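Appendix C reproduces, verbatim, an entry submitted by the partner laboratory led by Prof. M.T., so that reviewers can inspect both the input and the predicted structure.
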Amino acid sequence: MEGYRRNHLRNFREALARLTWPAGRQQEWLREIGIPVCADELALEFDDFYEVIGAWGGHGEAAPALAELDRLLARMSGEVNAHLWTPEALVAEPDWQRVRELATAALAVLPDHAG
């Protein structure tokens, strides 16, 4: 079980780190994984691990920034906001700058272990 948690936390840290990257690096990564027009992959990866790590008590001091980040990504979601999930939006939309700020703040204090 400990190995499972460690892997999940590592994957969460990696997903969170990608949210901190500048827009150009995020766009490059999306091209590398073969989905250059799907910026939502950045948020989907975060979401994959956020609740699981939290259930283990693994957010620690990062909890407030992570909760705000989660709320922001949820607010950005939905068909009405499809324009926020393009490669161009990563550069131009202020919401993405806020995502980067929150992810950076959370990553700086995220515990190295879950639970």
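The mean pLDDT is 93. Additional entries are available on request from the coordinating office.
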